[in-house]
Fold this sequence. Notes:
It is a single chain. This protein is of the alpha/beta class. The chain folds into 3 domains: 3-245, Glutamine Phosphoribosylpyrophosphate, subunit 1, domain 1 (4-Layer Sandwich), CATH 3.60.20.10; 248-424, Glucose-6-phosphate isomerase like protein, domain 1 (Rossmann fold, 3-Layer(aba) Sandwich), CATH 3.40.50; 431-578, 3-Layer(aba) Sandwich (Rossmann fold), CATH 3.40.50. Helix content is 34%, strand content 24%. The protein is built from 18 helices and 25 strands. The protein has an 8-stranded antiparallel sheet, covered by helices on one side. Strands 5-6-7-8-12-13-14 form a 7-stranded antiparallel sheet. Strand 21 (454-459), helix 16 and strand 22 form a beta-alpha-beta unit. Helix 9 (295-310) runs parallel beside helix 12 (396-411). 56% of the residues are buried.
Amino acid sequence: MCGIIGYIGAENAILYLIKGLKNLEYRGYDSVGIAVIKDGKLEIRKGAGKIEEVKEAKNFLELSGNIGIGHTRWATHGKVCDENAHPHFDCHGSIAIVHNGIIDNYKELREELEAKGHKFHSETDSEVVAHLIEEYLKEGISFENAFIKAISRLEGSYAILAIKEGEEKILAARKFSPLVLGIAKDGIFVASDIPSFLEWTNKVVYLSDYDVIIVEKNSYRIFNIKENAWVSRPIDTVSWDTSQISKGNFEHYMLKEIIEQSEVIQRAINQDKKLIEDVCDLIRNAKGIFFVASGTSYHASLVGSYYFSKIANTHVNVVLASEFENYRHFLKPETLVIAVSQSGETADVLEAVRVAKDAGSKVIGVVNVPGSSLTRESDLFVQINAGPEIGVAATKTYTAQVILMYLLSNALVGKYEEAIDKIKSLYMDVYNLTSRAMRDHIRMLSERLKEKEHIYLIGRGIQYATALEGALKIKEISYIHAEAFPAGELKHGPLALIEKDTPVIVFASKENEAKVIANAEEAKSRGAYIIGVSYKRSDIFDFWIKVPEVGDLNPIVQIIPMQVLAYQLAVLRGYDPDKPRNLAKSVTVI
């Protein structure tokens, strides 16, 4: 979940590293640090806090050098403090490393190294890497060989960068954690994600698990530990551009990405029809289908399960990725697993994919990020084409995932072109729902709700999935407890939670309005403050958010007001919606 970046080249590394880390801050923002080599000497500065705070406090701009590595942290092992910030170093302060991932056997390695006299300065699992390299250098072998030997001892997941005094190179390695090279005119980058260096180059090299990379000023070499051989990886060109990773005139990325959704629905339908048909063939021939996902992607998969049932008359199982291993007994070679992940690096999803592959099952990936691990571990993959999403709370990628689910379910019954036409017709509806007038309307609701401790959301059928996603958006960035229920379940327990003025958000459509309104009446009679998200007003609504009635595409138009509500609640409560506490964008640890 942390963000790492390295630069080696003709220019001063500091400005690249600072800007690159800012571009990676969605991956973690507990602490930050930089290490550079100048005239053969290593200097490290780091501290707890956000990048701008630590940059000023530690005078990052005083540093200079043509080789450097940086890290922005999301804490896993060890509390948030200066000592646990990366980079970490060896006993003599001559080796610096940054790490994303989790080293499962770090305790044993640390005990082994301490017994040999190594002194540790942090509580992290990462620090063992620097000391392992130091220990192997004592054998008289090269920095490269000591690094490879150290990496070979690690169990778990890692993306690691290392530099050493007197060495004009960056050493890097990856296993189950993202790492990519950026090939620029004046140097080479190695980083967690493409957005970190996109403003300087769109030429990338996607790295594979067990790759060790030796990066020098004008060249790089790749050795794969598992293959025990030097390998080559192609240079690709990404279609993303810098405007997509810039906030522009928006105060927050989240608001920018909410407003971009009218454009996203146009990009999401830009699919290779032959690929879609190949995916449909796998679905038709499967004996047992699973959607596997986490968080927002799980909610999009729930929507997909309704589409597959109603439109394509096809049964699918929807399973949280972290729980999927408990279903391994159902997996057979005829089973199809559709793995859904925005980043394509979600550790739980990738672990689920490996469980499926071990059973011989086919895997289809649904992913946003090109070149991600999921694209390479799947038998086929489909990109949702949402463009880079920087805000931690997923918005436009959810919409794009729902659109793809709708396309697939319709393609299964020969209605692909008809589905595209229906999605295209959403453009003005989505545009209007993200307009200033709508945002101002929802802001009035936000003012009323900002001091509430609890908000409940209810819906039936496909609207229940919308309620789940709306609740997630509210709680993850405003920190108000929000919980979703199937509307029919209110009387089976949740009504006990309803008091005078308890906010209850109700999702209604032509298909289910009679039953949902009746359920809302149950809450209203107990004093609830009813907020309707519907195509028409009901007498029981205390506040009404008008959305168009678009049938099976209601999940798209009904979630957008919830995204706006969550955003405005966060801002009114004084929180940064782009950096929710304890969370990061790409969950690369289990």
